[in-house]
Design a protein that fits this description.
alpha+beta, 31 strands, 5-stranded mixed β-sheet, 36% strand
Length: 475
């Protein structure tokens, strides 16, 4: 009898469940005197003392795998009382396994595979009917991602495409190593023989045909279908070459969009997005995407590339200008800056915002331009009264202040300009001019007040402040 030479260790074992498919199960194994491993039991049954001796990665592996045990899945996907009954009913519903159960399992398998790669946990293939594992049962888990490149060719008779895989710049074939197993479908993780490869941003269904043949070929009658379902999705993330196909690459300007959002807590945020032509993306969305590829109105295949450097510069500016990034797309005022409101921050950064951003209202469908508001004021004195003349200048527009009276008294910030655009009135106006508007008499040119209110006169005329207007074009 072979003696054990060490206490139990945790290894991950690839097994194929008859109903659930491929699983990665943590086992406690003992190393024997001839350097083979002997499986003791699944690690779910480890004692508290054994768990205390495990590393954090080993305990994490047990926790991940506990989410795809038969009993756990029964509690999530069934009201059956016994595991055997649950598995029997599930085996009769392959669509449910494919669409519900297996995607959940694969999400947890991705977590397990990440743990195996990062923490270098041992992964073995289990032989049916045996508890012994030899060195040749160990998988070689490649630490880096594999790369795929496709060639698409069209002539008068056929549409065909082929695949070349690379690992660290060296080509390898999917058809030379057997058997082939799919651990996760998207992103694809394949075992080729005893080699484990990771293929980011591609489904296993795109790769599996090439485990049996070098070239996929169909008649030209299916070209359009294959372009839409195969070429376009692949070309978004991977390098391709084409022969007999026109792929038009365009240069699209990157426009930084800022949307003012009101939260339920009366707090304002800025939401950032990037617009390329008629397509909009959030920061860091689809970061693995090499190009945006689509069909235009006439059916031609077009593509463009996002400007990663320009997007990074925008985010760098916002954070350096006193905003805190609280999610991929949302920013709020930092507590360390002097501005207390978002309007004040926008006012202080008006020039750079005008040059580099498109500012929008809360729904994002009403673009604003950042124009300056100037106030021109004068006063006519008479024995019994004095009259204030105030003109608001916005670009080429000159508007008597009397036009804003109703909005200020009713505390309405939105005002429709004569040219059909909308402006948000500066917050300061509502505190500065309310008393004058309530006590004054509106005239053709301004507001007339009795001398008893003369104490308002110097305060109103003192300011020559300029404001930032948030103006949106007429719909």
């Amino acid at each position: 009898m072979k003696e054990k030479t060490s206490d139990g260790q945790i290894i991950i074992v690839l097994t194929e469940h008859p109903v659930l498919g491929i699983l990665l199960i943590p086992y406690i194994a003992e190393r024997l005197s001839d350097n083979t491993l002997q499986l003791v039991e699944q690690a779910f049954h480890a004692s508290a003392e054994a768990m205390s001796r495990m590393s954090e990665a080993e305990r994490q592996a047990i926790d991940i795998a506990s989410h795809y045990t038969e009993k756990y899945l029964m509690g999530v996907y069934s009201r059956e009382k016994t595991v055997s009954r649950f598995l029997h009913k599930l085996s009769e519903d392959p669509e449910r396994i494919k669409n519900n159960v297996r995607p959940f399992i694969e999400k947890k398998l991705q977590e397990m595979l990440t743990l195996i790669r990062e923490k270098k946990l041992a992964l073995y293939q289990k032989q049916g009917g045996s508890k012994l594992l030899y060195a040749h049962h160990a998988y070689h888990v490649h630490p880096h991602d594999a790369e795929v490149r496709f060639m698409f060719q069209v002539d008068e008779k056929t549409f065909r495409y082929q695949l070349q895989c690379y690992y660290k710049g060296e080509p390898f074939s999917l058809s030379e190593q057997k058997p082939v197993n799919v651990l996760t479908s998207m992103p694809a993780t394949l075992s080729l023989g005893m080699e484990l490869y990771f293929f980011p941003n591609i489904e296993s269904s795109r790769l599996l045909p090439f485990t049996k043949k070098e070239v996929i070929s169909v008649t030209t009658s299916e070209t359009e279908k294959y372009i839409d379902n195969i070429l376009i999705p692949i070309a978004r993330y991977h390098k391709i070459k084409t022969e007999g196909l026109n792929l038009t690459e365009k240069k699209q300007n990157c426009e930084a969009m800022l949307i003012i959002e009101n939260t339920i807590y009366d707090k304002q945020l800025l939401q950032l997005s990037f617009r390329y032509g008629d397509q909009t993306f959030t920061p860091d969305s689809n970061t693995g995407m090499k190009r945006i590829i689509y069909r235009n109105e006439s059916g031609k295949i077009c593509c463009f590339r996002r400007n990663a450097n320009a997007e990074k510069r925008v985010i760098h500016f916002l954070t350096n200008a006193g905003l805190q990034r609280i999610s991929d797309a949302h920013f709020q005022l930092s507590p360390d800056i002097p501005e207390r409101t978002l309007s004040e921050w926008i006012s202080n950064h008006r020039e750079i915002l005008q040059q580099s951003f498109i500012l929008s209202g809360n729904m994002g469908s009403t673009p604003y331009c950042l124009d300056e508001i100037r106030i021109e004021q004068s006063c006519d004195d008479n024995p019994d009264w004095f009259e204030l003349h105030i003109t608001v200048v916005i670009g080429g527009l000159r508007i008597p202040f009397t036009r804003f009276r109703k909005h200020i008294l009713e505390e309405k910030r939105e005002f429709l300009l004569p040219d059909g655009r909308m402006i948000l009135l500066p917050e300061e106006w509502f505190s500065k001019y309310t008393n004058m508007l309530e006590m004054g008499v509106q005239t053709e040119k301004g507001f007339r007040l009795k001398h008893t209110f003369r104490h308002l006169h110097p305060r109103l005329l003192h300011s020559r402040k300029k404001y930032v207007a948030f103006i949106r074009p007429k719909d």
